[in-house]
Fold Tat pathway signal protein.
Amino acid sequence: MRNTKLDALVQELGLSQRQLAARFRAVAAENGATELLRYDQSRIARWIGGAIPEGRAPHILAETLTRGLGRVITLADIGLEQEDRAAPPAPGWSVDALTTLATLGSTDMDIERRQVLAQTAYSVAGLVLPSEAEWQQAAERARARKPLTQRAVTLDDVASVREMTQFLSRRDQERGGRGVGRTALVAYLRTDVAELLSGRFPTDHVRRAMTSAAAELAYLAGWTSFDAGEHPIALRWLTLATQLAEEAGDAPLAGHVLRAMAHQAVDLKQPAEAVRLAEGSLSGRRYREACWREKALLGVVHARALAAAGHKAQAATALLQAEKDLGRATDEGEEPERVWFFAEASLAHETGATLRDLGDLKGAEREFKRSVRTRRAQFKRTHSVTLGYLGDVQVRQGQLDAACTTWQQALDAMTGVQSGRARETVVQMRRALSPFRTRGGSPAAELDAQARAVLAAR
């Protein structure tokens, strides 16, 4: 069946199929899609006739049309939404950031397509970080990108995006990534932020500021997906956020996002990939130009990755450095808003998880208790997760009564929290209680019944 949507856009562009094929090859070359450089006008004709492009071709085609028509063109716009549902694009660095934002945003906001994407396999094994030279080339291409709209972007627009990010970030810390705030976040990215990135920048400073603000919001979309347990979606948003941060020349922000990707890989039992991503977050300017609080955050996640990979001595060294870096944070002035949450309680939480993975259960218990003791009230989501972890290390040491008391506090703290990570702690709680819950009327049996009710309600 003829692809009438694509045909209409090609006619609107006013180019012959030969000319469009030449532009397609040029965009493919810029994006490193060498497998597409042989495509000629016959391939364009076949696509208009109804053939389905394979691999990266649909996204390169959408980017080619985006540049030519001066507005963002998605896969749905070119009649390939079914292709998008059947085979969501793999995460990568090569496709134009604006095209990725439009396509990923549309996928995320469509329930059916989102479900398909969420069910794909999570893997970062093939996601090789570009070299510094390649990142520089990407930044230069972004600087030369032609505006797609006539909107003049100002620093007030940048401030508005950052204010929205701050509001949604604090909501996430309180209630978790599965709440209604995330839907608003993605919609705002897909519409308002995409339009701003497509506009005219009076100076390169404004362009970089807006791109950095967009990167931080894309990071939040990825982090909330991670917290909700939608890991393939999270990986794509985090990949896009890293690309935008590098295009903005914001090395510390790129490191911050790579740190989140490393954290995700730790949780999903891919320690080698976690170490690789954590080392990337600490590379060059990403660590060197970060504030001390952010350095501590990067370092403690590096320690967790090393512990998960079995590198005990290196993990201990990384923990000590993270503690030192956070200790120096009180001596500095302005910090980026994204690290507002990271203080003693967060460091203790990550340190406890590191020691647990190294087999030091007493040390882990001590750090989790420190985290619980020092955490501020608004961090309900992480507080409940910490209590879940604490109960786990207590029961593994034979402290069943203490664990039940801790887990009861964890369940109480989860009221109003919508988080996949919090839910997973309840699942792990029930597994740990399984040898004891057959004793009717016991505290363990009663707690298990409450945990089962919590899971049923989520």
